[in-house]
Write a structure and sequence with these properties.
This protein is an alpha+beta fold. The chain has helices at about 5-10, 40-45, 55-60, 75-85, 135-145, 160-165, 170-175, 190-200, 205-220, 225-240, 295-310, 340-365, 365-380, 435-450, 465-480, 515-545, 555-565, 565-570, 575-580, 585-595; strands spanning about 20-25, 30-35, 65-70, 105, 115, 125-130, 255-265, 265-275, 280-290, 315-320, 330-335, 390-400, 400-410, 415, 420-425, 460-465, 485-490, 495-500, 500-505. Helix content is about 45%, strand content about 20%. It holds the Pfam family UvrC_RNaseH_dom.
Length: about 600
């Protein structure tokens, strides 16, 4: 792969946490790494001189960069660990499977124990994690121990053995750390109520536990036990600042394929996440070119079959965003909430990022395709009969009714065509009347285009709501252009798009490219109009100042401006320069006015 291609890949990486993978020209994986910011981290490999020989060799071999976006740095760390174990790239430190991350286990027992472990055993027990730090696990276990009195022994506490007085309470009972379930001093119902509360803490739901902590702290304070109250306060602070759960790995989600799709007028992008034993081991996004306006369902069914064959997936279950028909032998799940939905959302995020990066790459390498896609999207979004290759936008500018002006900006193929911008000084309207001003400038603009046989736009955008749109329509009616040019108004407050003879506005997705182009048009028209208005006010103020000089009349002002072009230059002129234009007497008056 060429250096140019690699540069494009680097430019379009997201500024998000995630895992990056380097491949050589043969498609063999070289290195897997994690990053807080993918773009900065990956770019750093190519932007600086590396002292270490192996790193230099690695960078020279890189031909392709792939990445997976995740939510947090912790997720990136866990995913990196899983992928290194799976693929064992040449330039990574090898991770042995027995060096696993710690979990918190709630044992499948009559009176469950809660403890840390590095082994996940499928015996009905519940596991939470994994955690990237044993310190985090210890903190959580200490919190749980401080709040709940749980057993730590490994006795078989069956009802028969308890009834037979098989066990005796130990030191933990006498220290107040256990309620003595082994001698029947605590019921199974009471114990499991505590276990349910612990599960909520481990899931990240601290609300009930925090309330219980706060009440406990309040009780200690009322009993004047301030040291105990302080200990509880510290635990509350730890809980409030702690995020307990990772989205990357959940041992219950085992051997599953996850698929999601985003699409536009021309292409569909299907992301595939492969999960094995609760870990993401693969992410791949497939780009599919539409031929016959295929639906998302059709594209996703095609992609699922292709991707499962390509990567030889044997998973019996898939997660998808909507119902698909890929055969009865595969279980299809459409997650609505919880961990499964979180994994599906992660897949969708990766599809969206891939799509954005492809747009950026295409914009650089194939601008025609980029423009065609944008135009097709605008035609569909705005319900137009033809693509808006030529768009014109109008805006009025006046401040307290002074120097009313208007601006017309022109976009061609979605980009500003500044040579076609036009300013208008309002001629027929007295005072600040936006509606009448809009009617005037729209009439003047298209009357001139018709008289000069110039091409008309496919779309007119009016900066304003129903009132300004109606005024513009009056001029199109007079010129016989109504129905021949599409016209819409955009209201500033809620970005509402108004159409002729339709009282209900259209609302576009705030992130849509169509809305962004219309906003850019509106902002550019506003900027261009304000600039002209400011210049006109400035010129007017200076001209008025020249006329206020005693003994200087209108004809003299005209002569001065013909020669010096502006009142500012007149004020800075030397006495002999002024004498050359208006004679000694008037030159003295002007020079003395500005310099005395």
């Amino acid at each position: 792969m060429s250096n140019t291609s690699l540069e494009i890949q680097l430019k379009t990486l997201p500024n998000q946490p995630g895992v990056y993978q380097y491949f050589d020209s043969d498609g063999k994986i070289l290195y897997i790494g994690k990053a807080k910011n993918l773009k900065k981290r990956v770019s750093s490999y190519f932007n600086k001189q590396h002292d270490y020989g192996k790193t230099r060799v690695l960078v020279k071999k890189i031909a392709t960069i792939k990445h997976i976006v995740v939510d947090t740095e912790t997720d990136a760390l866990l995913l990196e660990n899983n992928l290194i174990k799976k693929y064992q790239p040449r330039y990574n430190v090898m991770l042995k499977d027995d060096k696993s991350y710690p979990w918190i286990c709630i044992k499948n027992e009559r009176f469950p124990r809660v403890f840390s472990t590095r082994r996940v055993i499928k015996d009905g027990s519940e596991y939470f994690g994994p955690y990237t730090s044993m310190k985090t696990v210890s903190t959580l276990l200490n919190l749980i121990k401080g709040l709940f009195q749980l057993r730590t022994c490994n006795y078989d506490l069956s009802q028969e053995k308890i009834d037979a007085n098989k066990y005796r309470v130990c030191l933990e009972y006498h220290l107040g750390n256990c309620k003595g379930a082994c001698e029947g001093y605590e019921t199974e119902t009471e114990y499991h109520a505590n276990i349910d509360a612990i599960k909520e803490i481990l899931k990240g739901n601290f609300k009930d536990s925090l309330s219980q902590f706060k009440q406990q702290m309040k009780d200690y304070a009322e009993d004047m036990q301030f040291e105990e109250a302080q200990k509880i306060k510290e635990k509350i602070e730890v809980l409030e600042n702690y995020q307990s759960k990772s989205t990357i790995v959940n041992p219950k989600i085992s051997n599953v394929d996850v698929f999601s799709i985003v699409s536009d007028e021309s292409y569909g992008y299907v992301n595939f996440l492969q999960l094995s034993y609760g870990s993401i081991i693969r992410s791949h996004t497939l780009e599919i070119k539409k031929k016959l306006q295929e639906t998302d369902v059709e594209l996703l069914e095609l992609a699922i079959t292709e991707l499962r064959q390509r990567f030889n997936s044997k998973s019996k279950e898939i997660y998808v965003p909507f119902k698909v028909n890929i055969g009865e032998h595969i279980k299809t799940t459409i997650p609505k909430l919880g961990d499964k939905k979180h994994i599906l959302d992660l897949s969708l995020r990766n599809a969206k990022y891939y799509r954005m990066e492809r747009f950026k790459q295409v914009k650089i390498t194939d601008p025609d395709r980029h423009v065609n896609r944008i135009m097709a999207q605008m035609k569909a979004d705005l319900r137009l009969n033809e693509e808006p290759r030529h768009i014109e936008c109008f805006d009025n500018s006046n401040i307290q009714g002074t120097n009313p002006v208007a601006a017309c900006v022109v976009f061609k193929d979605g980009k500003p065509s500044k040579k076609d911008y036009r300013h208008f000084n309002i001629k027929t309207v007295e005072g600040p009347d936006d509606f009448a001003s809009m009617e005037e400038v729209v009439f003047r603009r298209y009357k001139r285009l018709l008289d000069e046989d110039q091409p008309l736009p496919q779309l007119i955008v009016i900066d304003g709501g129903k009132g300004q749109l109606s005024s513009a329509l009056k001029s199109l009616d007079v010129l016989g252009l109504r129905g021949k040019i599409a016209i819409i108004g955009i209201a500033k407050r809620l970005e509402e798009l108004f159409y002729p003879d339709d009282p209900i506005p259209l609302y576009l997705d705030k992130k849509s490219e169509t809305l962004k182009i219309i906003q850019q048009l509106r902002n550019e028209a506003h900027r261009f109009g304000i600039e002209h208005h400011r210049n006109k006010r400035s010129k007017s103020a200076l001209n008025t100042e020249l006329e206020t000089i005693p003994g200087i009349g209108e004809k003299t002002v005209v002569e001065l401006l013909k020669t010096f072009k502006s009142a500012r230059r007149v004020s800075n002129a030397k006495l002999d320069e002024l004498e050359d234009v208006v004679g000694k007497s008037k030159a003295d008056k002007i020079y003395n006015y500005y310099h005395n």
